[in-house]
């Protein structure tokens, strides 16, 4: 699902669109800096989209900056939603232009449908089902201790229900969280869901994975234009591939003890490294980098990842691995064809 879009879209308009300005004044009274604020475009639900005239363009009032959660804007929630980024972005800008009373040029409209929409941030998500929320929370607690993500290291568990990898990265970050808790959080604007028992039940057993791609990473992967998200003609293929690649870089400790037979087969330096890890030592802080990675590679086949801290409990880890390897849950049948699932018109 496409959960967030920040984009710069060609859309000719006569007057600047802003929500005012923020101005910093120096002690002497002169202006230090100023920033144009975004205005909020409200839809049928409580969620709005942030819009302003793009300023770094060759011609004034030629582009719009649009940022927000279009799925929640159109259907009132983000339990599920479309993977068709091009169709969603085109429908979003058409709706914004209409609500603002703008008349885009024929060239603007042609650019939209050609996918010439610049993306500066995209959040993509997938949902996995466990039996209940208790299992989702147990999975997150175990993953905090046992999971290691390539290029991001160990995760950081926040408020007991959201596990972040690379939270402050300027390129990309991954978070996993309990969707059932999120829909009840203050300010998330999911009231339309809380009144539906079937939707609440669906959310309560949902482990949500959310990958945020920022401008530099989008450019690096050649995904900074909406036209690049077609993926073999299947809109969902790009989203699935992005998350599959990230999960492919995740390792998890599936045991905390090696048998005596395996221990005896290890060379002394590797055995000592394992024993130090098992005693609670953080080997990243002790070993030289090359030695650390050599030992890590040797122990991974035995279910030990010394890049993580020794787990206090591992009983919930293997089921987690099975969840991530399984096919993500799709939009429930009972939601399709109803206002609970917004499907934008495909772009030919």
SSE diagram, text form:
Blueprint: E1 2-10, E2 21-25, E3 31-36, E4 39-42, E5 48-53, E6 63-68, H1 70-75, H2 85-99, H3 106-113, E7 118-129, H4 133-146, E8 147-149, E9 153-154, E10 156-158, E11 162-165, E12 172-178, H5 179-182, H6 191-194, H7 197-204, E13 206-214, H8 215-220, H9 235-248, E14 250-252, H10 260-265, H11 268-278, H12 289-299, H13 317-325
Antiparallel strand pairs: 1-6, 1-7, 2-3, 4-5, 5-6, 7-13, 8-9, 8-14, 10-11, 11-12, 12-13
Walk me through this protein's architecture.
The chain is α+β, with helices and mostly antiparallel strands and 348 residues long. The chain has 2 domains: 2-250 and 318-334, no CATH class; 257-310, no CATH class. It has 13 helices and 14 strands. The strands form 3 sheets. Strands 4-5-6-1-7-13-12-11-10 form a 9-stranded antiparallel beta sheet. Strands 9-8-14 form a 3-stranded antiparallel beta sheet. The chain is globular, with a radius of gyration of 24 Å. The two termini are 20 Å apart. The model is unreliable at 314-319 (pLDDT under 50).
Q: What's the main sheet like?
A: 9 strands, antiparallel
Number of helices: 13
Q: Which spans have pLDDT < 50 for at least 5 consecutive residues?
A: 314-319
**Strands side by side in the biggest sheet:** 4-5-6-1-7-13-12-11-10
Quote the beta fraction: 15-25%
Indicate the percent of residues in helices: 25-40%
Principal-axes shape call: globular
Radius of gyration: 24 Å
Per DSSP E runs of 2 or more residues, the count of β-strands stands at 14
- Mean pLDDT, all residues: 85
